[in-house]
Design goal:
The complex is a heterodimer. By secondary structure, chain A is an alpha+beta fold. Chain A has 11 helices and 14 strands. Chain A is globular and about 60 Å long. By secondary structure, chain B is of the alpha+beta class. Chain B has 21 helices and 32 strands. The chains are: A alpha+beta, B alpha+beta.
């Protein structure tokens, strides 16, 4: 019979992963991947590890979100405007049922190119804490997701938390997701923007695009071009050519690559307006 | 399946303890077992439905400590110590919701209802009086394929407002024809009805099919006996070689060509090649080591290539892979078009569309003496019996089909699916068996809407009167015949739309490929043809400089006009439907502007089989206790025949609906009421019910020597008749049982009068047609190519609305499927075999709908009623396309109009 391990502490969880290397967080990716009544193979159920749950303020102004914090919890929490994009994404992950179960850590570890959580976290400059037998290491989220369904997790390692540095918690943010229906939709393209405004002009800009390449990406070149722009000027500074250089969308059943580039530019313009001064 | 005691379980594992609807339970289950499985199989709480096992449909929504969650994604171990609530719970808020669902007609087939109710319960606890937007979002995670969501949202809002439980203040509705009777099977729907997967005999077999992973592949089996012997729980493995009868089925006997288990080669991805039986003891069947070796072969997936002379042939005797071609020809269309001042040359293309009922195919079977009993989800019990009996080599009288509650059908559950497989295993082993398709195998193995490539021309004169129409349609019918012949016949008959078309030629051919089997789907090809014709009409109206609605009215068929098959129509309601839209049209046009458009499209649809017999028989008995027993053999797949047929019977008999008890459908208990398809049940079975009610009434009155106008009442087991001062009584308890076992009974059959079509497609293919027109208001986001539907106004001539609530439910549900067809649905074999890649509309995708019920009585219909079920889907997609063109000037030629396709069309207009 397969192992189903239920650790109660983080050290126990790491021990368990040595025996049952597949972690079970919300189950919203593992169960759909099988048609059987049970999960095949050995799993470590993380639901009982308190360290993995909840949103806490960090000394110095940052914030920590436990990897097993559900989208419902994130969506309903009182969070600063810089994380409004994350909360908008939380409400766009599946329906309410999926938000109840699905977790932020699972979303990142599943590493889908269309993971709703990634662009809002990228614009917040999120880091991830990875616990392993040798202790905890911290990576920028951009370095954690290395490809479609691929992450920097080493064998025996566990994503324990998303860490939002204080500088990522300033400004206002907006997340937009484009799909072919209203709810329960995998995005064709999605964007997040976080902007810091000074005297009606953009002082800092963070932009990210998802579903337009193997991994969601920040757009440093486009961000730089926004500095100093007013809300009205900003739209014109979204340069489709710069997007085309930064993104590598594919043609698939949901949309063409050319359309995705087009849509990403338009969504960015709207997200900038949505994160207005 | 009886509810098991709380400490029961299956499949091993430690006992898991939790509170289920307020009661402490303990159940043994493996810790990672899906909670849905534990509730259903372990505890016998089958009210929680499973539609996808992937969190895509929300049917299995339960509340865990008050929060809605998909039970299919929840490990049993995580129920430990929690409060779980299911649809079997009893609390005042849930009661209020149930009452509101019934009153609003929010449950049709009922498969999504438990999930909807639980999601709504969580909402109402959070927000006592939610707004529509809040309800829409809270229910956005539960898919419904029947209702179009509008009545569900109304019900949730009404429950939030404190909808009251009907009481003495509101006298029970008599149940006359025309009354908004609450569906007679409604109480079961809001309690969690008993569908195909919800009833089985414990201790039997559970069956799994092995299916082809390739569209075309030869295969060979290894040592099956060794596999059975070495696989835990395996009992048997069957292949085509084990089929005792004729391994070939098909809804149209002359074209029957589909094996229950395919011999090599498999002709489409998802075709079953072996049936594996396992002990039904809670252990997970393991198919991973099954000995089969696949040799993929070249596959034909493009019908245009498949009809090339040198293409490989799927079936002997069908050169060019042509299953059939239908033709209707009247006058000289080419000459008429050549002489027309305005002609549009037009092409449109559609893809495979999946029925996506939320209930995957499921059923159970067992022996009763010498009789094989199969209880499964179906639209056509008698056809199931005959096809399955032939495959199994059984005489038909040794096979009994009991349709389960059906969680949506829309045409695909007309063909047999798992019935022969269940029967085979039970006959071979003598043991009961059950089988439930996974979502993926339901989508891969069952029929689809035919993809269509349609081209042709339509012309009109300077006054906008249609002069001629030429149509050519290539329909991909997939690997087997199924309903391909019906599509090929119906399309040429209907491609004119409900308009006078004096010169006409229409051809539709069904071509085999190694794609999924294309079969019946709400409208049999007519929705595709209407997409072509109705979008061409808009272009033509613009050319002629005539308002698009007026253009349609000018050409609408009127009483006495001949159709393209030369049939003279006695009763036509299309002009009335279009006229009913006029005030809405004027308002909408005034509100339109750049980016905001309005579109209109019509439909007509012949009810019943095309030029072929399709009788229905209804039996009504009065027993010695004074009960009226209605043997109702029309399967209710959510559309409401249980209620509508009973209302018609009650209306004809003149006794209150409350005295009626329904039996069936069940091939052992109900006479043949035919299949639930072709929008025929209200009409054909309704006529049989009317005839049976009338005959029984005449017999009652004759026995009491009372006149035709007498009013009948029941007082216990006595019938009392009164007319003026005359009164008589008949004691039913004193009457001897007749040959059917009743004090009094009647059985009547109705078969619509039609004539077969001749070589030019001329004749009277249908005894009755229904008509409708829909108007869509929408806005287009041109930068993203997205469409926002604002409002849909639908006028349908139903002849007589037997039950207006149910009629509106059909309209709203058909519109939702039309929205899907237009904007999001495209089945791609191997790529969209789930409900997250294959998108159907959610609560947020169906705008407010205003239904206008037009009642132009048809002399052939019961109380004047016409069919409606398929009509309602036909105008929606073309009306949306016409609205998009109105808003943007762009008309995408390929459906669905996904954002990238619309964006490309808009850019094309700008660049052009």
């Amino acid at each position: 019979m397969s192992l189903y391990l239920r650790p109660a502490t983080l050290p126990e969880a790491l021990d368990c992963l040595a025996r049952a290397p597949r972690p079970l967080a919300g189950g919203t990716d593992l169960y759909p991947a099988t048609t059987t009544a049970d999960l095949p193979g050995d799993v470590t159920d993380l639901a009982g590890v308190p360290d993995l749950h909840g949103i806490t303020a960090l000394p110095g102004g940052g914030m920590r979100i436990g990897a097993c914090t559900s989208w419902a919890t994130i969506g309903d929490a009182p969070l600063p405007p810089a994380l409004r994009a994350l909360q908008q994404a939380a409400h766009a992950v599946g329906g309410r049922q999926i938000q109840t179960a699905g977790t932020i850590g699972g979303n990142l570890c599943n590493a889908s190119p269309a993971a709703d959580g990634v662009p809002p976290l990228l614009v917040a400059g999120a880091l991830v804490d990875l616990a392993g037998p040798g202790g905890i290491r911290r990576l920028p989220l951009a370095d954690f997701i290395t490809g479609p369904r691929r992450t920097a997790l080493l064998p025996g390692e566990l994503l324990v938390a998303v860490v939002l540095p204080p500088e990522g918690l300033s400004g206002a943010s907006c997340f937009l997701k484009l799909g072919a229906r209203a709810y329960l939709v995998i995005s064709i393209a999605m964007v997040a923007a976080r902007l810091l405004w000074r005297d009606g002009r953009i002082a800092e800009a963070a932009l990210a695009v998802g579903s337009c390449g193997p991994v969601a990406r920040r757009l440093p070149g486009v961000e730089a071009a926004l500095i100093g722009a007013t809300a009205i000027e900003a739209a014109a500074r979204i340069d489709p050519a710069a997007l085309a250089r930064a993104l590598t969308p594919i043609d698939d059943a949901r949309a063409s690559a050319a359309y995705r580039l087009d849509a990403a530019a338009e969504l960015l313009r709207r997200a900038i307006a949505g994160a207005g001064p | 399946m009886m509810r098991a005691p709380p400490d029961a379980g299956g499949g091993g594992g430690d006992a898991i303890r939790f509170t289920l609807n307020g009661t402490a339970v303990a159940v043994a289950a493996p810790p990672s077992r899906r909670l849905s499985d534990v509730l259903r199989d372990g505890l016998g709480f089958t009210g929680t439905k499973v539609g996808c096992d992937a969190g895509d449909c929300g049917a299995c929504t339960v509340l865990i400590d008050g929060a809605p969650a998909c039970a299919c994604l929840t490990p049993a171990a995580r129920a430990e110590g929690r409060r779980i609530e299911t649809v079997e719970a009893e609390n005042p808020t849930l009661t209020r919701l149930r009452v509101a669902f019934l009153a609003e007609g929010a449950a049709q087939c009922g498969i999504c209802t438990p999930g909807m109710l639980m999601a709504a319960l969580a909402l109402l606890r959070r927000v006592r009086q939610p707004t529509e937007a809040e309800a829409e979002e809270a229910l956005g995670g539960v898919l419904c394929r029947c209702t179009g969501y509008r009545k569900i949202l109304s019900a949730v809002l009404a429950a939030g407002q404190g909808a009251s439980i009907p009481d003495a203040e509101h006298p029970p509705i008599e149940g006359h024809v025309g009354d908004r009777v609450i569906r007679l099977d409604g109480a079961a729907k809001v309690a969690g009805d008993i569908f195909g997967a919800d009833h089985w005999h414990p201790g039997g077999l559970v069956l799994k099919a092995l299916r082809s992973p390739h569209p075309h592949a030869a295969f060979a089996f290894g040592d099956l006996a060794a596999w059975v012997a070495s696989t835990p729980g395996a009992v048997a493995a069957y292949t085509a070689a084990d089929i005792p009868g004729v391994n070939r089925f098909g809804v149209i006997p002359a074209f029957a060509d589909q094996p229950a288990l395919a011999p090599s080669p498999a002709r489409f991805r998802g075709e079953a090649v072996a049936l594996l039986a396992f002990e039904d003891d809670g252990h997970v069947p393991d198919l991973s080591a099954f000995p089969v070796r696949w040799s993929p072969l070249p596959a034909l997936t493009d019908p245009a290539l498949a009809e090339a002379a040198d293409a490989l042939q799927l079936h002997p005797g069908r050169p060019g892979n042509r299953l059939i071609e239908g033709l209707v020809r009247r006058g000289d269309a080419e000459a008429a078009l050549a002489a027309s001042p305005h002609v549009v040359t037009h092409g449109m293309e559609t893809g495979f569309v999946e029925h996506a009922y939320i209930e995957p195919e499921a059923g159970a079977a067992w022996m009763e003496g010498d009789t094989l009993v199969i209880r499964a989800s179906t639209q056509a019990p008698i056809m199931d019996r005959d096809d399955t009996a032939a495959i199994l080599g059984l005489p038909a009288d040794r096979l009994r089909i009991i349709p389960s509650a059906v969680g949506g059908g829309f045409g695909s559950k007309l063909d047999v699916s798992l019935q022969p497989l269940l029967g085979l295993a039970v006959l071979k082993t003598g043991r009961p068996a059950r089988m439930t398709y996974t979502r993926a195998e339901s989508m891969a193995s069952t029929t689809k809407r035919h993809p269509a490539r349609m081209t042709g021309r339509i012309g009109c004169d300077a006054d906008g009167r249609i002069t001629g129409l030429a149509f050519d349609g290539l329909f991909d019918t997939g690997a087997y015949a199924s309903w391909g012949p019906t599509v090929a016949n119906r399309v040429p008959v209907h491609a004119s739309g409900p308009y006078r078309t004096p010169a006409y030629i229409a051809r539709a051919r069904a071509i085999h490929t190694h794609n999924p089997v294309a079969g019946a789907f709400r409208g049999f090809g007519v929705p595709q043809a209407a997409i072509w014709q109705e979008t061409a009409y808009d272009i033509l109206a613009d050319q002629a400089g005539i308002d698009r609605l007026e253009f349609r009215l000018r050409n609408a068929l009127r009483d006495g006009d001949a159709t393209v098959t030369g049939q003279s129509l006695a009763s036509t309601g299309i002009a009335q439907c279009l006229e009913a839209l006029r005030p809405h049209w004027a308002r909408a046009l005034a509100e339109a502007g750049p980016g905001r458009g309005v579109g209109v499209a019509s439909c007509w649809y012949g009810c019943g089989n095309t030029g072929l017999a399709n009788p229905s028989t209804i039996r009504i008995g009065l027993n010695q206790l004074g009960e009226v027993i209605l043997h109702q053999g029309a399967t209710d797949i959510g559309q409401g025949s249980n209620t509508v047929i009973a209302q018609i019977a009650a209306g004809a008999l003149g006794l209150p609906l409350a005295a009626f008890r329904l039996i069936g459908p069940d091939t052992a208990l109900t006479p043949d009421a035919g299949k639930t398809s072709a929008s025929r049940q209200t009409f054909v079975t309704g006529r049989a019910a009317q005839a049976a009610g009338t005959a029984l009434r005449a017999e009652i009155l004759r026995r009491m020597n009372m006149g035709k106008g007498a009013r009948l009442t029941l007082d216990g087991a006595r019938i009392i008749a009164k007319e003026g001062s005359a009164q008589a009584e008949l004691a039913l308890s004193a009457l001897p049982a007749d040959a059917r076992g009743y004090a009094l009974s009647a059985e009547e059959t109705y078969d619509p009068p039609t004539t077969p079509l001749d070589a030019n497609g001329q004749g009277n293919p249908y005894a009755l047609y229904g008509f409708g027109a829909q108007m869509v208001e929408l806005s287009v986001d041109p930068a993203l190519g997205t469409v926002k539907l604002i409002k849909i106004t639908a006028a349908h001539d139903v002849g007589r609305a037997i039950n207006p609530t149910l009629a509106e439910g059909q309209i709203e549900g058909g519109i939702a499927q039309g929205i899907g067809l237009a904007l999001m649905e495209e089945y791609l074999p191997g790529r969209t075999e789930n409900l997250h890649d294959y998108l159907i509309p959610t609560t947020g995708d169906v705008p407010p709908i205003t239904s206008i019920l037009i009642e132009v009585p048809d002399p052939e219909g019961p109380f004047g009623a016409r069919g409606l079920g398929e009509h309602v889907l036909i105008p929606t997609a073309p009306a949306i396309l016409n609205g998009i063109r109105h808003a943007t000037g762009a008309l995408p030629r390929r459906l669905p109009v996904l954002p990238h396709r619309l964006r490309a069309a808009i850019m094309g207009v700008r660049d052009g």
